[in-house]
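Bit of a strange request maybe. I'm writing a small parser for structure token strings and I need a real example to test against, not something I typed by hand. Could someone generate the tokens for this chain?
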Amino acid sequence: MAEQLNTLRDQIDAVDKQILNLLAERLALVEKVGEVKSEHGLPIYAPDREAAMLASRRAEAEKIGVPPQLIEDILRRTMRESYASEKDSGFKCLNPELRSVVIVGGKGQLGGLFGRMFTLSGYQVKVLGSQDWHRAEEILDGAGLVVVTVPIHLTEGVIEKLGQLPDDCILCDLTSIKTKPLQAMLNAHRGPVVGLHPMFGPDVPSLAKQVIVYCDGRGEEHYQWLLKQFAIWGASLCQIDASEHDHGMTLIQALRHFTSFAYGLHLSRENPNIDKLLQLSSPIYRLELAMVGRLFGQDPNLYGDIIFSSEENIEMIKRFHHCFGEALEILDGRDKQAFIESFDKVSDWFGEYSQQFMSESQNLLKQANDSIHRR
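Reply from user aminoacidic:
Good idea to test on real output. This should exercise your parser:
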């Protein structure tokens, strides 16, 4: 038996080496594709091409008895690496006549990411950090684009310091709230203004498939090239009114972060053995635990700024607390029927999204399970 297994394992190792060689060849081809895209100003992410290629490979896999989902999983992971590789080829500069790009807060992680992306696109990038305000006039002199990316509680104050920009300079911010910063920019600057919110962190390997929200301010025709530049980087653009954006962020960010904070706070007081919890966890609970733990591995000032950024956030969290209290009343009353009725109402509200989310989560859970190493 041992001899048979060793022979088969040797054959598997040989096939794995062939796969490695093919992956290396594919990445080399991707690098050439990136050079062509860079030369012609094509986005690194082409959704139609990706969808057509995956459909074709799934069909081919099925014909030869390979599970279609297997080849899709392999290709999606390979494409993620490919997008990161294409980024290194640089990007076409859509506005070569633009004067300098100044990143206010460019020494931070998100500012650094955008600074690198502009540099890869051939723009002259300058950084105005917190220690550089004595040189602000010099750094901002003749700027063509100013990007403000500082903590939320500092944003409006920093914007107020930017009142002497050239009239044709584009002023934008990367803050996760939009109404107040956008109004502050409109008050401080007479030229083009746009509010931006990158819906990702600074640790993304590329901007492919990442969302950048934008809220129009003034002089939309003057910053269309900037939005197209983001698209070339691979980002998907979402236009929205500033107040509508902030209302959505109340649910997506403030409430979600606060419930994770409260759950983590409760866990710390219960003081379970985390290793034991992980040993007992199904993939879905492990993911949930990871998302809560992830919050506490980051800067508390950032999340505090997000949660405390508006009265609307606090009122939303209070309404959630009231709803939680109503659910507790069902629990205290041992009223299973009331629980089922409430459950069904929420299920009806989700409608077809329930099945969509079920399918999406199953794929995530498979990936999470694959990455687990059981001792």
